[in-house]
Amino acid sequence: MPVAIENLIPHRAPMRWIDALTDCTDLTASANATFNAKHFAVAKGAVSEIALVECMAQTAAAALGQRARNAGKTGADGIGMLVAVSNFKIHLRAPLEKLLQIEIRELKRLGSMRMISGVILCEGRTIAAGQLMVYA
User: Fold this and answer.
1) What's the pTM value of the predicted model, to 2 decimals?
2) Which residues pair with residue 82 across a beta bridge?
3) Is the peptide bond before 14 cis (omega within 30 degrees of 0)?
4) pLDDT per residue over 1-42, tens digit each?
5) Given phi > 0 = left and psi -120 to 50 = alpha, else beta, which region is 27?
6) Backbone phi, psi, residue 58, to 5°
7) Class of the CATH domain delimited by 5-135
């Protein structure tokens, strides 16, 4: 049975933007998100572009929480943070009411710092892609 996302990340509404962690390995993770017109991250009928960055960061946080749980610890300890964003490109507007699939891969690790590469897809089309540096 999947773990509730609130047990993996410290984010709570209205700042929790991913709905579920759907896959998690030692180096990769996938999550889903859906935005509606009343969502905090939607303005003038469009999903904020920064929300896509945050969805990727929350996917990384959820993966860290799941890995902690797999190691016998509790998830959602709240010590992580987004440090940097690079080469992040928005290819298409994220549609409302459609499932977004967020896929990340850990590229490098140096102590508590992790470089993450990610892509956000909707119906097989790339919405956004880029790299994040996170501290956890």
Assistant:
1) 0.94
2) 134
3) yes
4) 478 999 999 888 889 999 999 999 999 999 999 999 999 899
5) alpha
6) -70, -30
7) alpha beta
